[in-house]
From TrEMBL:
Pfam families xref list: Thiamine_BP
Start and end residues of each Thiamine-binding protein domain: 4-97
Family, similarity comment: Belongs to the UPF0045 family.
CC terms in the record's Gene Ontology section: cytosol
Protein name per the record: MTH1187 family thiamine-binding protein
Residue ranges of the region described as Disordered: 81-102
PANTHER family cross-referenced by the UniProt entry: UPF0045 PROTEIN ECM15
Length: 102
């Protein structure tokens, strides 16, 4: 199981607002056929699942702003692919809380 942080930035849109693009990306995530889980954050999206599935989803997410009229898209990806044990978004946060004594 991998956890990926992805940030898709539409460029050449004529507006500093990106909310409509984020909404379209969320819709794409909601319709994903791959068995993934995701969490939107104010600055990026965190997705967990099998790496091949995640890469396929990210490829589609990269195309969303183009479909919505953007002329250029910059996509940044950070992959956490731990293979010695299964990790989830919640498990990673719980580990930090445990170390804080909470």
């Amino acid at each position: 199981m991998a956890i990926v942080q992805v940030t898709v930035v539409p460029l050449g849109t004529g507006s500093p607002s990106v909310g409509e693009y984020v909404a379209a990306i969320k819709k794409e995530l909601d319709q994903a056929k791959e068995p993934i889980r995701y969490q939107l954050t104010p600055m990026s999206t965190i997705i967990e699942g099998e790496l091949d599935d995640l890469l396929a989803v990210i490829r589609r997410l990269h195309e969303v702003p183009f479909r919505e009229g953007a002329q250029r898209v910059s996509t940044s990806i950070t992959i956490d692919d731990r293979r010695d044990k299964k990790g989830t978004m919640e498990q990673k946060l719980a580990s930090v809380e445990e170390k804080l004594g909470r």
